Amino acid sequence: MSEETFTANIGGCDPSDCASCSSDCQSAGKGSIPRVPNPTIKLTLEDNTVLECAVLTTFPVEDFGEFIALVPLDKDGKSTSGETYLFRYAEDGDGNPVVTNIEREDEYMAAAESFHEFIANLPSEEDTEEE
To answer: Which InterPro entries does the entry mention (predicted)?
Structure first.
């Protein structure tokens, strides 16, 4: 399988909303993924179809680099499949996202394990309600 590179259009907040925003957005307006709930990314696949996905998180994996976890959305913007996609993640010189397939099994397994640890360590709804 050859490496696929996807073009990405990031959706999210508008930089003008920063004054009233309570999110920890460190990069609004700079072309990288905003740190706000549920930004979306549009992947242009090899056959030129466009797949819109919700961005769950980006996360580092020791010895392998940065990865991104995406949830595919249907035409109504809902996730009905329960699937999560993992890809390599980087930014080009202009700060635009570059998403590529994970080709090696050891790399994928390390990314999957790191993502599962991330999910397991998320605070529960009860924890967030107590704060």
So the answer is: UPF0473
